[in-house]
Amino acid sequence: IMLHTAYWRWVQAAEKDKAAAWNDLERIVSNRKADEELFASVTRNACGELRGCTEQMAFDKHDLKDNECHQALAKIVHEQCPKREAHNTGGWNGFNMKFSQTLVNLCESKQTLKKESQELAQIVREACKAAQGVETTIVI
Predict the structure, then answer these.
(1) CB–CB of 34/136 below 8 Å?
(2) What's the pLDDT at 137?
(3) Cα separation, 35 vs 49, whole angstroms
């Protein structure tokens, strides 16, 4: 919704407001790309050299059974990944919530990945830390 709203604000903006509206739109697109890269980084690092694994982690729909693992990873995203907008309470936002399924897939694939929950948690922590260095502008 934020993307569509920002787009229509830009389309409908008076000439004097076009630049600010465009900057808003660009910020939202940039933040989404940063979130996509963050979770792609998590899957790449969790999968290593396993063929087809990153695609499976991104697109499969495993049922959640390992609640403890998923809760730990989701908490790391909330507490340690960058807030993209001032109104976000943590690293999760309306766009990147879809990646919660990726975390489920990782937790339910620990045997295939040959990773324990703690190792997955460290991978998520490292991705969040790296993403903190990616410049995002929060407008208040």
Answers:
(1) yes
(2) 47
(3) 23
* Among 51, 52, 65, residue whose Cα is nearest residue 110: 65
**Structure tokens that stand for 82 in this block:** 């960058």
Residue 120 near residue 47 (C-beta atoms within 8 A): no
What single-letter amino acid sits at 66?
A: D
Q: What does the pLDDT look like over 24-43, one tens digit per residue?
A: 888 889 999 999 999 999 99
What are the CA-CA distances from residue 70 to residues 8, 17, 39, 77, 106 (Å)?
36, 43, 14, 11, 9
Structure tokens at 130: 């790296």
Identify the burial level of 80 via C-beta atoms within 10 angstroms of its C-beta, where 0-12 means exposed, 13-18 middle and 19 or more buried: middle
Distances, alpha carbon 101 to alpha carbons 89, 116, 132, in Å: 20, 18, 22
Q: What is the mean pLDDT of each run of 10 residues along the chain (140 residues)?
A: 78 87 86 95 97 97 98 98 91 95 98 98 97 59
